[in-house]
């Protein structure tokens, strides 16, 4: 099953690269799709492609969406490129989404910033917010990684367990994995798969873009 999906992602990425080579303008949603595919492929090559696309976009003065940047950060973390992940994350405007919240925790874990990590969780658990303001939520999967990281430091384990209990009481823990959080698409938004299908059609020939490019 994964091999089939990987082939599909690879094929889609090849089409996007060809679009780029043909100077087809990328929209914000196209970048989201491209970075999401690179994240799903999770290879040194896809990381290089994602990095190149991102740097080219920034050089052109294009503004990348928070969601696109989150996929780029997640891919960098999966490839153990922590410094790159931190750099991309630092450039995200308003990193208040659930994806950003959890990626920030992973960055702290992989950077061994354990004291800051515990402090970040503590601040989130003790936030005195209006009932109309949504609290930061943490993935159970990500919190499990935190506990694994601090398990050999008794003082930090005790603090974490206390904070975890508070987060549980305040309803700030979700069973969704980080991958599910990253890939979640609100129902009122068009599927990026449909977006890709739309982009893959040549405006001039109304043929699939891949066929049109080959014909040219």
TrEMBL record:
One of its GO terms (molecular function) is RNA binding. InterPro entries: PTCD2 (IPR034629). One of its GO terms (cellular component) is mitochondrion. It comes from the Eukaryota. GO terms for biological process: mitochondrion organization; regulation of mRNA processing. This is Pentatricopeptide repeat domain 2.
